[in-house]
């Protein structure tokens, strides 16, 4: 009979318990390091993504208040790899518990080009938010006190002769075909410069975003009466380009002038028909000049001619930097019907002559040229304004900074996917030490 030898069983038992305990500790440490390491990796990648966005183009920011990076996906991937691995690498004298390394990164800019109207509008709204929201300006405020528009568009707006400015025509077909608004070119004609369905009641319900966009246009882009020292743009009449879309500076200026003439003629004609004295004067003259059945038709023609003459005088005043009330009273009227019929021209735009009495006109009342541009912009479609803003930015950036500049290569955000591997382990056997991270960063 052989007796069981129990000698040494206790150390074996204790060793087994110790190994099990160490294995449990290793598993817990592996799990803890995995959780902490994932948070650490996420923080590093977040910082790397923000570092990419910190490399926004300074010229685009300074000139137009827009944030965007000018780089392709390959360049962004190299930068992300560098930023991440520099943070993951251990340094001499420090213990690296994670041993993380970036194995793969894929960048996608496709959701954030500034050539996307929604993306561009979002940045413009953020840029103008302080000016609009903080002051609580509304369309009604602008109509009641047009001077409020001047303080929001804090640029020099002095009456200057357009002859002092260089008006250009864009003739390079390669640049024209590359403009973001090229898809809109089929809509251009004479009537595109005119306000569609003009109804002043609509201004009382205009949205904050539309106000912000119009104020942004007037702040960042030139128009006919802006200081000629503002000469770092291709077009001299940029706001007019946004309204009309022609590649010719002079044509845009002419079309805006025509649209204002039509607008002022309609408003002045409405004033004539609401003024009993003017209406009676027209009927009297029509009866004297065209007696009989032709008198009513003649009265309409005389009224239109009178309104057009007053509107032409209004445009002359606007071109000199004066203000013209949107809706006139009798005291605001400039052209006398008798003088018009006698073909006497008004010698000054700062006074009204009626029955030999000269009435001086204060030049601070009414709307100036920039205010009327604001009104025309209110009736231009959102898409048209945004695409033509893109045109001007692209043209000016090409001319001033980068000859190969394209707004479609400017990005206001970044998406990327990274695969990270942890090289060390607390376990004696293999474990899952890889993770995939998805990051999105937007200005």
Describe it for me?
By secondary structure, the chain is mainly α. It folds into two domains: 9-111 and 413-442, no CATH class; 117-399, no CATH class. It has 15 helices and five strands. Strand 2 (351-354) and strand 3 form a beta hairpin. The longest helix is centred in the first third of the chain and has 45 residues, at 9-53. The N and C termini lie far apart (86 Å).
Question: How would you summarize the topology of this molecule?
Answer:
Layout: H1 9-53, H2 58-64, H3 73-88, E1 100-108, H4 117-133, H5 139-144, H6 147-152, H7 173-177, H8 208-220, H9 238-244, H10 249-274, H11 276-289, H12 295-319, H13 337-341, E2 351-354, E3 357-360, H14 369-378, H15 382-400, E4 413-422, E5 434-442
Antiparallel strand pairs: 1-4, 2-3, 4-5
Helix pairs in contact: 1-3, 4-8, 8-14, 9-10, 9-15, 10-12, 11-12
Strand arrangement in the largest pleated sheet: 1-4-5
Our estimate of the beta-strand percent is 5-15%
Calculate Rg over CA atoms. 35 Å
The helix/strand series, from N terminus to C terminus, equals: HHHEHHHHHHHHHHEEHHEE
The major pleated sheet works out as: 3 strands, antiparallel
Number of strands: 5
User: Taking all residues together, what is the mean pLDDT?
Assistant: 80
Number of helices: 15
């Amino acid at each position: 009979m052989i007796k069981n030898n129990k000698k040494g069983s206790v150390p074996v038992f204790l060793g087994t318990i110790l190994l099990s305990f160490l294995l449990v500790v290793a598993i817990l440490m592996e799990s803890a390091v995995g959780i902490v390491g994932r948070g650490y990796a996420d923080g590093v990648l977040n910082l790397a993504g923000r570092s990419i966005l910190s490399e926004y183009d300074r010229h685009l920011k300074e000139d137009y208040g827009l944030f965007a990076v000018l780089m392709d996906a390959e360049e962004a991937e190299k930068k992300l790899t560098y930023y991440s691995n520099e943070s993951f690498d251990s340094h001499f004298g420090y213990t690296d518990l994670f041993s993380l390394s970036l194995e793969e990164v894929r960048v996608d800019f496709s959701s954030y080009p500034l050539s996307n109207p929604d993306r561009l509008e979002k940045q413009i709204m953020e840029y103008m938010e302080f000016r609009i929201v903080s002051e609580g300006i509304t369309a009604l405020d602008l109509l009641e006190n047009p001077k409020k528009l001047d303080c929001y568009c804090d640029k020099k707006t002095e009456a200057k002769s357009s002859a002092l400015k260089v008006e250009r025509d864009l003739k390079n077909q390669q640049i024209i075909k590359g403009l973001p608004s090229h898809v809109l070119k089929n809509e251009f004609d004479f009537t595109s410069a005119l306000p569609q369905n003009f109804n002043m009641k609509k201004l009382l319900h205009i949205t904050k975003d539309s106000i912000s966009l119009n104020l942004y246009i007037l702040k960042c882009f030139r128009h006919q009466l802006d200081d000629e020292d503002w000469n770092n743009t291709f077009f001299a009449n940029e706001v007019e380009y946004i309204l009309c879309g022609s590649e010719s500076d002079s044509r845009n200026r002419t079309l805006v002038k025509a649209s204002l003439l039509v607008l002022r003629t309609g408003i002045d004609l409405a004033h004539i028909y609401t003024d009993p004295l003017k209406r009676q004067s027209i009927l009297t003259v029509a009866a004297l000049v065209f007696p009989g059945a032709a008198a009513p038709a003649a009265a309409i023609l005389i009224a239109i001619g009178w309104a057009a003459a007053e509107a032409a005088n209004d445009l002359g005043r606007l071109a000199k930097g004066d203000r013209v009330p949107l809706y006139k009273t009798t005291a605001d009227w400039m052209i006398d019907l008798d003088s018009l019929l006698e073909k006497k021209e008004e010698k000054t735009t700062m006074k009204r002559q009626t029955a030999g009495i000269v009435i001086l006109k204060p030049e601070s009342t009414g709307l100036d040229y920039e205010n009327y541009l604001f009104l025309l912009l209110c009736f231009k479609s959102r898409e048209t304004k945004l695409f033509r803003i893109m045109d001007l930015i692209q043209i000016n950036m090409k001319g001033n900074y980068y000859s190969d500049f394209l707004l479609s290569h400017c990005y206001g955000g970044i998406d990327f996917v990274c695969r990270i591997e942890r090289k060390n382990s607390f376990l004696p056997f293999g474990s899952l030490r890889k993770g995939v991270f998805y990051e999105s960063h937007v200005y």
